[in-house]
Amino acid sequence: MIKSTVQNINIGVDTGKSQLDIYVRPLDIFFSVSNDDKGIKQAIKTIQQHSPQRIAVEATGRLEMPFILACAEAALPYVIANPIHVKRFAGAIGQRAKTDKLDAKLIAHYAEAIKPTLTQLKPESMRLMADLVIRRNQLLSMQTMEKNRLQIMPKHLAMTIKPILTAFKNQIEKIENKLIQLIKSCPEYQAKNDILQSMPGIGKIAAASLISNLPELGYITNKQAAALVGVAPMNRESGRYKGLRKIQGGRAQVRTVLYMAMMSAMQCNPVFKSTYQRLLAEGKPKKVAIIACVRKMVVILNAMLRDGVRWAEKTA
To answer: Distance of alpha carbon 127 from its chain centroid, rounded?
Structure first.
C-alpha cells in the first residue's frame, strides 16, 4: 500500500471484545482485525502507512487498552474518546444507524470535526503508579503488625521495634512523594486527580489507585464501574433457591482502597454519612452498609470524570 499524501488523516476505531473495526477518513478505507496481539500488530502496521493526525478510540472499558498501549509504543497520536461526546456528536449530525463500519466512521468524523486533544497517557507511569500503591499497602500492613507488637512486647524490646517503625514511615513517605510526582508528570493524570480529590473522603492514595488500577473510570456505565470494583451485588438464585445477593470478583486492590476511603468519607462527607445512617436504620449490617456507600461513591466518581465536573459542581 502506498503511503497517503493526504495530510489531514483521522482514524476511528470501534473496539469490540474480539475485533477492532477501523475507518480511515477521508480515504474511505475500512478494515477489521482481531483484537489480539496478531491483529493489533497488523492494524498498527497499516495505520502507520497513512501518518494520521489522530487515531480516535472510543473508550468502552479495558478492551481498548492493548491497542492503546500499542499506539503509545509506536509513537502514534491517539485520543481516548469519551463515548458521551461521540454520542452527542452523532446526534448533532443526525446519525442514528449503527453498524461496525458506521460506528468506526462516526468516530473518525468526530476526530476530524472536533479535533479532541491528544491523550497523553504514559502506560509505564500507570504501571509504576499501581506498583507503588501496592507496595505502600504492604508497608502499611507490616507497620501495623509492628505497632501491635510494640503494645504487647516487654519494654526492654521496644528499642528493637521503634527503628523499624521509623524506617517504615520514611519509606511510606517516599512512595507517596513518588506518586505525587507521577501524577504531576501527566496533564491527564493531573486533571483526573483534581476531580477525584475534590470529593471529600478521596485522598491522594485513593485517587492514585483509581487512576492506575481503574483507568476506564469515566468512560463506562455506572453498572460497569460498580462491577469492575466488585461492589455490585450479584443474584444467587437457582430454581426455588434464593440466596442473599453478594458482591464478588472485581479489582480487590481498588475496592480495599475505597473501603478505607469510605471510613474517612462517612466522617467528613454529609452525603455518605447520611446514606450510611439511613441504611443502618433500615437494619442493614454495618459492612453491607459500607459497601453500599462505596458503590454509591464509585457511581458518583464515574459520573464526575465522565462529565468533567468537580464535587462542588456535582452536588450544587
So the answer is: 12
